[in-house]
Amino acid sequence: MKFNRFNKRNIKDLRSMEPPDRFSTGVSNLDLHSKDQSQHPACRPEAVIWPVDRNEVSEILKYANKNLIPVTGWGSGSSLEGNPIPVKAGIVLDFSQMNKIRDIREEDFQTDVEPGVIYQNLNEKLRSKGLFFPPDPGAQATIGGMIANNASGTQTVHYGSTKDHVLRLSVVLANGEIIETGTRASKTSSGYDLIHLFAGSEGTLGIVVEATLRLVGLPAEFSAAIVTFPSVGAAGKAVFEIIRSGLDPAALELLDPDCIEIINREQNLGLHVSPTPFMEYHGPTKNQLAEVMEIVREICKEEGCDEFRPGLGRKERDDLLKARHELAEMIIRKHPGCSLMVIDVAVPITGYPEIIAFVREESENTGIPGYIFSHAGDGNLHLVLMGKKGDEREWEIIDHANQRIVSKALAMGGTATGEHGVGIGKRKFMEAEHGKSLKWMKGIKSFFDPNFILNPGKIFP
Ligand SMILES: Cc1cc2nc3c(=O)[nH]c(=O)nc-3n(C[C@H](O)[C@H](O)[C@H](O)COP(=O)(O)OP(=O)(O)OC[C@H]3O[C@@H](n4cnc5c(N)ncnc54)[C@H](O)[C@@H]3O)c2cc1C
């Protein structure tokens, strides 16, 4: 698809549609919206607009569609696969000013929010009402970006990913039409499920302008444990056995010894430097949780754990989760002059011990600093490789490792991207993962966005 570059008339038209403080062609604003947190090269848009309501988004899309100008949504820019990079330039819609929590219906466990709400701010607000929105990607993500990427996080193993918490969406389509899809009922079997089509579509099918989210009650009690193992393989096997036993952890993360070392160095947590699963259970009473922990202890002992430390207090557990969320930044700080590549795959849980052993070997073979950490409970695994900026040879090696790890995950019946989306980086694997379905995905794209103006250059190879 050939897009039009901005001309003087486009700038004049858009300026007449937007107040001056919410429309910019200034280089610093363009640069701020040219790059996410990935290693993919920056691309400047031609203008940035900060809309404040759905009608404004609709007018901009009508104009862009008529003039064949690309439009890319922007939340916080925290993606890791180049998802919001405006590779075909055009307009970036930054949703930071559409950040209102419109309603909280405590007794229905629901909230209506605009796309620019940061999920941590939402949870802050919900805490006093005894509620929370469980998907937690860690970074300062917006609800719009989380829906578009179908983000997940440490508690997805128990509570599900973002798409499991979306009940209703207001979406502006490429032609400017505003539609509502979904209901406020907690279940429905009415017609095609457009919510799950928009969720994970990375802003390529429509722009989300409001969402009704399903909330969850804060757990009455929690119980958390740290376990250490002599090898990553043994830890991976224990993860599989815990899930297989149906013990339903609320979080089950696995950190390799290099990650533990960095966390100790930066946050002084004094953890044992070994492959370390960290897990948490939620439940109604302490007694019930104590029983669960006893079974988990037995499983871990059988798999040869060195140490099983249950009964973490609130502070210790919060410190550990915080460290887990900040791990990527800590790794970056340890390697000045390098960029990070996060290889993100997921496999069926039975394959978890195999994929973790494979990834460990691949990482060692690269000779490049590598860190494995994972949302192990749902078979999701990340390998972070730190390549020197501008070192083509290293980036070739990293690319090769990515290729091999993704191919292995696909061969095991898994996916090329557990939670970071396709963006730019995973497009090349779409054919291998989806086969003939890819043609139908393209058909859906053409139906919703015949001029391909919405976030072009993403998802499809
Ligand atoms: C340190 C770190 C840790 C991370 N950990 C996790 C993790 O554990 N789990 C996880 O899932 N992700 C993780 N991520 C990736 C990222 O934070 C998530 O994908 C997050 O959901 C992106 O949200 P955002 O607001 O930054 O969106 P952006 O990056 O700004 O955009 C994401 C996508 O959404 C589109 N978009 C934005 N707003 C809208 C809208 N209103 N309508 C339609 N499309 C829109 C964009 O065009 C883009 O395609 C991590 C990132 C970092 C940097």
Task: Write a brief structural summary.
This protein has 461 residues and is α+β, with helices and mostly antiparallel strands.
Tags for this entry?
single chain; 461 residues; alpha+beta; seven-stranded antiparallel beta sheet; five-stranded antiparallel beta sheet; 18 strands; 36% helix; 20% strand; binds flavin-adenine dinucleotide
What Rg, in angstroms, do the CA atoms define? 22 Å
The average pLDDT score comes to: 96
N-to-C CA distance: 14 Å
Question: Helical proportion?
Answer: 25-40%
What order do the strands of the largest sheet run in, or round the barrel if closed? Answer: 15-12-14-13-17-18-16
Give the oligomer, counting copies of the same chain as homo and different chains as hetero. single chain
- Determine the number of helices (DSSP H or I, runs of at least 4 residues): 15
Biggest beta sheet attributes: 7 strands, antiparallel
Q: Structural class, judged by helices and strands?
A: alpha+beta
Which regions contain 5 or more consecutive residues with pLDDT less than 50?
A: none
Principal-axis shape: globular
Bound molecules: flavin-adenine dinucleotide
- Beta-strand proportion: 15-25%
Topology, number of strands: 18
Description:
The strands form 4 sheets. A 7-stranded antiparallel sheet has the order 15-12-14-13-17-18-16, with helices on both faces. A 5-stranded antiparallel sheet has the order 5-6-10-8-9. It has a 4-stranded mixed sheet with strand order 1-2-4-3, with helices on one face. It is built from 15 helices and 18 strands. The chain has 461 residues and is α+β, with helices and mostly antiparallel strands. The chain is globular and about 70 Å long. The site of flavin-adenine dinucleotide (FAD) has 36 residues, from β3, α5 and β10.
